[in-house]
Amino acid sequence: MGGGGDFMVTVSRKEVVAAALPVQEYWLPQSNLDLLLPPVDVGVFFCYKKPHGSGNGGDELRFGSMVRVVKEALAQALVSYYAFAGEVVSNSVGEPELLCNNRGVDFTEAYADVQLQDLNLYNPDDSIEGKLVPKKKNGVLSVQVTELKCGGAVVGCTFDHRIADAYSANLFLVSWAEMAQSKPLSVIPSFRRSLLNPRRPGSYHPSLDEMYVPISALPPPKAPQPGADHLISRLYYVSAEQLSLLQTLASSGGIRKRTKLESLSAFLWKMVAKSAVMENANKKICKMGIVVDGRGRLSSGDEDKTALMATYFGNVLSIPFGEKIIGDLKEQPLSWVADAVHDYLERAVTKEHFLGLIDWVEAHRPEPALAKIYCSGSSDGPAFVVSSGQRFPASKVDFGWGRPALGSYHFPWGGDAGYVMPMPSPARDGDWVVYMHLLNDQIELIENQGAHIFRPLTSDYLKLADFPHRS
Fold first, then answer.
1. What is the number of alpha carbons within 13 Å of residue 211 lying toward its C-beta?
2. Residue 121, Cα to own-chain centre: how many angstroms?
3. Fewest Cβ atoms closer than 10 Å to its Cβ: which of 12, 133, 285, 416?
4. What element of type H or E holds 26?
């Protein structure tokens, strides 16, 4: 799988792109759910094949023209998505707030001495990290557009997770592409923080004390041990056929049908448990969390609130998790593990859970807090989080020269636990691209025992992405 990461990236231009229209400066407070996010940045990137035809006699579209389109569309999109053009600052009690001052977005133009088909997409630590996805130094969002030797391009972005979750970023990405094609925005984002106001008086279930923890209650971080296993990032391709097979195995012969996400998560839970090699491993605990979007839950039964929450920009997330004895996860059938996934999710995907979470944060402010599984290190037994990227709009991020051959989040999130993000593939309906950020030993076992499911994402994938669209 080697190669494709040993290339040079040359920066040709850096500038700051502000909103196309002036924005009156004002403070936008963080919601209680925003305050649960640590200061981590999220990366996302899109790979485009060499474009042909610009509507100008069929001439090839030049990179300079592509950059101009992306840049002008960004300036237009920032008028509505002004949060991405602001800055995060601390208020008088030390909580982050957003200063909407149209500071703008750091925008980089670059050239990479590599062809798209030679990019080592399987190992984004080698090919994407710090090369094609920019490091964010200032503001809330950074963008880099990179020309490839073959005439293709990569558009990479990094944003502050405290300001936006993946749902919000997806809204922005689609709007950005719509601006590039001179289309009206299909969604106007809402920043109505009152939608997530705490109740008076507040109340919450004691189980939230097991899911979330004030940072002051955490033990000090342990120094890394020499030779200790470390987290690495990998990209895989999972076919629709393998997903359907997993779903059948996880659904108890059709008695209880599990979703594809539940089924894939259950399989990974078994694999991560099997990879544990610590002393008395079979008696230790393995934890798995699943990121849940609360927009639909908070607005259940209220049509007006449903419409408002569908456009809400910010964080509306919870990370419920289950914990099982490693020996049980290894020995029980996949359907048993999938039932366990379903059961712990079912308790948390309710309106009351999210209302309670908002109240829990209010009861602990201004003390910062975060999801307990984020800091569940391997010393307690392995832990990881699965996030659903099924709304990831890769096929819609078309700036006018065709849909991307590949789009993916890139999120080496800095926690002690692993992270997995499955996304729909733009190459074939029903197939998934899966980003994994797990321990090296866990990755090796998944590749060994799950080779029929998780295919390393190589240049062969890009042949799938030849258009017209396959279905």
1. 27
2. 17
3. 12
4. strand 26-29
Q: Alpha-carbon distance 327 to 18, whole Å?
A: 55
Q: What is the mean pLDDT of the chain?
A: 91
Q: What is the pLDDT of residues 123-139, one digit of tens each?
A: 999 999 999 999 999 99
Given a cut of 80, whether residue 172 has pLDDT beyond it is yes
Look at residue 331 and give its three-state secondary structure: helix
Examine residue 468 and say whether the peptide bond preceding it is cis (omega within 30 degrees of 0). Answer: yes
Q: What is the mean pLDDT of residues 136-157?
A: 97
Amino acid identity at 448: N
The span from the CA of 268 to the CA of 251, in Å, is: 16
Residue 343's CB is within 10 A of a number of other CB atoms, namely 10
Instruction: Specify which residues 238 forms β-bridges with.
Output: 432
- SS3 at position 250: helix
**Residue that has been written with the tokens 């982050």 in this structure:** 96
Q: Residue 92 pLDDT more than 70?
A: yes
Residue 217 amino acid letter: A
Of the chain, the percentage scoring pLDDT greater than 70 comes to: 93
CB-based contact 432:253 (threshold 8 Å): no
Q: What are phi and psi of 207, to 5 degrees?
A: -60, -25
Biggest distance spanned by C-alpha atoms of the chain:
70
| pLDDT on residue 285 | 93
* Residue 225 pLDDT level (bands cut at 50, 70, 90): low
Reported confidence tier of residue 303, pLDDT bands at 50, 70, 90: confident
Helical (H) or strand (E) element with 246: helix 240-250
SS3 334: helix
Strands, E assignment, 32-152 = 41-48, 87-90, 96-100, 105-112, 141-148
Specify which residues 106 forms β-bridges with: 16, 142
Residue of 244, 227, 279 whose CA lies nearest to 431? 244
| Dist CA 360 CA 346 (whole Å) | 20
**Of 233, 283, 248, which Cα lies nearest the Cα of 418?**
233
Across the strands, what pairs with 312? 190
- Alpha-carbon distance of 459 to 241, in angstroms, equals 21
